[in-house]
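haha ok so turns out i had the wrong file open the whole time. this is the CORRECT one, sorry everyone. sequence first:
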Amino acid sequence: MNKQPFKTIPYERTSYSPIEARARAEEHFEMMDVRRSVRHFSPAAVPRDLIEFAIKTASTAPSGAHMQPWTFVAISDLTIKKKIRIAAEKEEFTSYEGGRMKEEWLRDLAPLGTTWEKPFLETVPWIVVLMAQRRGVNPDGSNKKHYYVQESVGIAAGMFIEALHHIGLSTLTHTPSPMGFLQEILHRPKNEVPYILFPIGFAADNCEVPDLKRKTLDQVSVWFE
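then structure:
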């Protein structure tokens, strides 16, 4: 098999001394350690360019064969947000009250105070729906293979959350199941499926979040040295 030529460019990197690197690592951890999922948002407007920068940052994520198999659908339209809330709450009601979620799951969620009601979907300045492209589409309409779609989109989602937090915005990873209604409301093509719905805005002044305790380093890591 002949290898196709590809263009390369010099890799631009910044080098830090061990002391500088450690200081930057600590600063970054402290910034991210205060991140929380937020369900109470300010009605204050969020400039579109902030959402654009967060999407561009997320799109620097690595992906299988560099296919970048994601689409970020950003919504500020009030009518569409209302449709999303109605459809999401319908599914969530079935999950919480209709038996879709097992008793163990409901018990685990109870300390977080979540319910089937999602009013923030209608009041938040922006909703961004991250769509996973199961396959690509060539200019002639034929299918294009995508690789490691779930992994690639998952990495982009994490980078999107970090980008939002870095600029002072708050969000929540909302995954009403099933999410097919998003594909219909947003008129997305068949090669895309909803991955995560992100309500985005500034946290409300009186916002409170659960007093969570994260696992320690020893609990989440194993070392071979």
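The first strand starts at residue 70 and ends at 75.
again sry for the mixup
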